[in-house]
Amino acid sequence: MTAFSDEAIIKVRDLTVGFHGKLILEHLDLDVKRGEILGVVGASGSGKSVLTRAIIGLLPKVNGRIEVFGVGMDAADEAERRAVERRWGVLFQHGALFSSLSVRQNIQFPMREFMKVSDRLLDEITVAKLVMVGLKPEVADLFPSELSGGMTKRVALARALSLDPEIVFLDEPTSGLDPISAGDFDELVKTLQRTLGLTVFMVTHDLDSLNTVCNRIAVLGDRKVLLIGPMDDMLASQHPWLQAYFHGKRARALAA
């Protein structure tokens, strides 16, 4: 497994998020270390996607502090926030491609917002990103409705990588994929993390992904982080949910 730094480039402290009077996360603390692949797991409704969206500023919080690259996101002015946002990429669950835009236009969408370059250079970067995620250049002219599930995930990843980010947020990247496609996607993420020096924050239910790709795993439950550490820590835990998840019938691959 690739080594990573002890430097925390995302720091979440005392985070509380709720909707309609119900708290989803409460007094949650979490550090994401530079260069690691952190898997975030938990029962349905435990707040995994809520945590992701709170970190990237898509959901308001009741309380707490979020710091990215040493920048307190609450105190940051618009220019500071945009500078931080330019350094991360996001792959939303199901890809979230714009259905009315071509693959080329989808990948170029963040670049047109943040970069002032010619259309020719945008096209060259688009092809480079497609090749980076294992797709052929001609895929650029297709529309999302013409893509398979695996291709959709790869295009969404190419868009997330379009600005050469340092952090990539992946929300259930292998959901809906067959086991072979999911395994190929895991290998792609691991290769990109190693070659580009990425920090990866990955929400997943996939036990294979947690076992083969992640340096550490953060388990959400009771509105906070129950446990964070490598797979060995997960397997050794006596917490009932962790026992059921990591030692249950679906965990055969971990015992192999």
Task: Characterise the protein shown here.
The protein is of the alpha/beta class and 256 residues long. 38% of the residues lie in helices and 25% in strands. The chain is built from ten helices and ten strands. The chain has helices spanning 48-55, 78-85, 103-114, 119-132, 149-160, 179-196, 207-212, 231-236, 240-247, 252-255, and strands at residues 8-19, 22-33, 37-42, 63-68, 71-72, 88-91, 167-171, 199-203, 216-221, 224-229. Strands 6-7-8-3-9-10 form a six-stranded mixed sheet. The radius of gyration is 18 Å and the shape is globular. The two termini are 18 Å apart.
Query: What is the C-alpha radius of gyration, as a whole number of Å?
Result: 18 Å
H/E element string? EEEHEEHEHHHEHEHEEHHH
Low-confidence parts: none
Number of strands: 10
Structural class: alpha/beta
Q: Please estimate the helix content.
A: 25-40%
The largest sheet, given as strand count, sense and whether it forms a barrel, is: 6 strands, mixed
Number of continuous helical runs:
10
**In percent terms, what proportion of residues is strand?**
25-35%
**Mean pLDDT, nearest integer?**
90
Shape: globular
**Terminal-residue CA separation:** 18 Å
Which strand order does the major sheet show?
A: 6-7-8-3-9-10
